[in-house]
């Protein structure tokens, strides 16, 4: 083997180290998918090497086989390590057409509604309060559905810092509710008079024939 052949083999060794070890290691460091890592290795090998380099080496047959075996071993070994570590296959971003669920970013889980909704009428609870104040204590802090049209409303910033919108219903009588001012003031202000609204309110307190709800929101 003359010096030219040794030089050519040395170049191939350099190209092999770059395409099989260095480039895949860099792609793996940036947490690329296995498909991208494999494609990057082949692409770097194609760029660094040409078919003429293969043909210029007398022992090209043995070298081709050696390179092929080495690459297969590295790919299979890397794949085994990757999946045995608990990773899953990821579709490369450049191959995503929004047709695969794996291409979509994970969506945050919907918040769980832990509110306890009492299946009772607010007028009934206010009447119950006239009979027994102790009997309605268990409803304080619970949530209840309220339906009715707003008669009067007003802004209240005491004690602050957040303002509320207090409202009295025209029917049924004795129902007093409060809303978050910033969120609901414009909606309530543009609601035609007499419109029946469905609301979900937290029971603040119950007095004889008087219901007070807070943190109310308009629901379908």
Could you please describe the fold and organization of this structure?
By secondary structure, the chain is an alpha/beta fold. It has two domains: 3-103; 117-218, OB fold (Dihydrolipoamide Acetyltransferase, E2P). 41% of the residues lie in helices and 23% in strands. It has helices at residues 3-29, 34-48, 51-55, 60-84, 122-131, 181-189; strands at residues 117-118, 143-156, 164-171, 175-180, 197-207, 210-218. It has a five-stranded mixed beta barrel with strand order 2-3-4-6-5. Helix 5 (122-131) links the parallel strand 1 (117-118) and strand 2 (143-156). Helix 1 runs antiparallel to helix 2 (34-48). Mean pLDDT is 76; it is low at 91-95.
Mean pLDDT score:
76
Cα-atom radius of gyration: 36 Å
Highest-level CATH class of the largest domain: Mainly Beta
Q: Order of strands across the widest beta sheet? A: 2-3-4-6-5
- The N- to C-terminal Cα distance equals 86 Å
The topology string of helices and strands comes to HHHHEHEEEHEE
Rough shape? rod-shaped
Kindly state the percentage of residues in helix. 40-55%
The biggest sheet amounts to: 5 strands, mixed, barrel
CATH 2nd-level architecture of the largest domain: Beta Barrel
* Extended strand count: 6
CATH topology of the largest domain: OB fold (Dihydrolipoamide Acetyltransferase, E2P)
Brief summary:
The protein has helices spanning 3-29, 34-48, 51-55, 60-84, 122-131, 181-189; strands at 117-118, 143-156, 164-171, 175-180, 197-207, 210-218.
